[in-house]
Please model this.
Amino acid sequence: MDSLVVAFSGGVDSTFLLKAAKDALGDKAVAFTMASPYHLQWEIRESAELVKKIGVKQRIRKEETILPEIINNPPDRCYLCKKSLFTEILKYAEEQGFKHVADGTNADDTADYRPGMKAIKELNIRSPLLETGFTKEDIRTISREIGLPTWSKPAYACLLSRIPYGQKITITDLRKIEKAELYLLSLGLKTVRVRLHGEMARIEVCDEERERLFDTELLDQIAKAIKGLGFQYATLDLQGYRMGSLNEGL
Model:
C-alpha cells in the first residue's frame, strides 16, 4: 500500500492491523482515532498507550457533539456515523500525503447487521483483515504469539450499540452507560453490556459469567450501584451477552 492511515480504536482488530502496518510500512503508517461522545473514553486513553507500544504516530480527532443525523438513533446510524468518520480520515490522509485508509473489519464481521460496511465500501476504505480472510480467532492467536496485550481483550463497540433504534441519544445517557459498564468490569466481569431502554438498564454478561450473578447479595449490590448512576430500574438479561442484541428487532 506504500502508505496507510489506520482507523484505530484500540481494540483487538485495529491493534493487530496497526502492528502489521507498522511492520510493513514503518513511519508510513499512522493511527487515526476518533474521540466522540459515543466512544468509550477509557478506551481512547488506552489507545494512546498502545500506539506508543507499537511505535507509530497517532492523530486523535476530538468531537464534542452528536451528529445531528443520528440524534434519534436511526437503523442506518452506523452507516451515517462511519461515513462521517471515514470522510474525516480520508481528508486527513490527503492532507498528510497518505495513499490509503484501512479499518479492522475481519471475516467474522459479515455475520451481523453492519450497515457501516456499506459506507466503507462506498468510500473505498481497505479492510486488509477481511480481504485476507482473518477471523477473530486468527487475530487473537497471532496477537498473542507476537506479544500484543490486546490478544485477550474483550470485544467492545461504540456506546450507540447500547441504545435501541429510535430512542433519542443524549450525552448524559452515554456517560451513564459507560460508568455502569466500568462498575461491572470492576467486579471482575469480563464481557458486559448495559443496554438502555428508557430508564431501565438491561445488563448482559457472557455465558460463563451468568452463574456468578446467581447471588442475591451481589444482585442487590449491583442494583444499588446502577440506580445510583441515574437508572430507575436495573435488570439482568437471562440470555446473557449477544453481539448486536439490539439488532434482533430489525
Remarks:
- Strands lie at 4-7, 29-35, 57-62, 100-102, 192-197, 200-205, 233-236.
- The first strand starts at residue 4 and ends at 7.
- Residues 77-96 form the longest helix (20 residues).
- The domain at 159-249 is CATH 3.30.70 (Alpha-Beta Plaits).
